[in-house]
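Cast an eye over this sequence plus tokens and explain the fold to me:
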Amino acid sequence: MARQKDDASTMELPGVARPRGRPRTGKALSRAQIQRNYRLRQKAKQQGENHV
């Protein structure tokens, strides 16, 4: 059982190892999705410059 975030006085339970690294959020994008979003942003940015 984990302690609450605001509880600074309670120690972690011994023998319960947390995994290394940053916790997963469940909202991660694939590299293809990241690249697609980047290209769409770049395209919108160029279109915005052309209309000015």
Observations:
- Residues 5 and 51 are 50 Å apart (CA to CA).
- DSSP finds one helix and no strands in the chain.
- The two ends are 58 Å apart (CA to CA).
- Residues 31-50 form the longest helix (20 residues).
